[in-house]
Design a protein that fits this description.
The protein has about 190 residues and is an alpha/beta fold. Helices cover about 40% and strands about 20% of the residues. α1 links the parallel β1 and β2. α1 crosses α7. The two termini are about 15 Å apart.
Amino acid sequence: MKVLGIMGSPRRQSNTEILLDKALEGASEAGAEVEKVLVSKLKIAPCLEIYACRKDGDCAIKDDMQALYAKLLEADHIVFASPIFFYGVTSQAKAIIDRCQALWVRRHELGVGKEDRRVRRGVFISVGATRGKKLFDGAVLTVKYFFDAIGVEYSGGLLVRGIDVKAQIKEHPATLEDAFRLGQELVHGG
């Protein structure tokens, strides 16, 4: 079983990355093979909406997204992690989501991948500095549609308010444990 972690924060050793690492540690301890992708290290252009993908499901833009498509399709489960920037995911994370239009076309217009009967699940880890009541609403909706586009069932997540200073999450051991448990539950189907 493979669990893919997507780290959407541009800041290394961020609160988001610390929580993602804990979730992947939990998944690994539960027996999964884990991999973490650092989005900020990839060269991914934004979607140009030229719909070349409608021909065969392949994106015409040739960049690091090509390798990520394979990882997204191969993974049994996905942990998508992004801090909140203006009530949404980071631009780096959003570029990946937008470029998955090609995978949506494959699945929903061309019927490619419909034969994949695996129950693939995904969770969302996010950290926001403010305590706004609707802080995560837009990002959660975006992640749900992203997961749907790639054939992954949204299975909840860990959404943490009021955290901003780099590595501040280390002062919250219960939240770190929640992330670890989230990774374990992803593997065990809980």
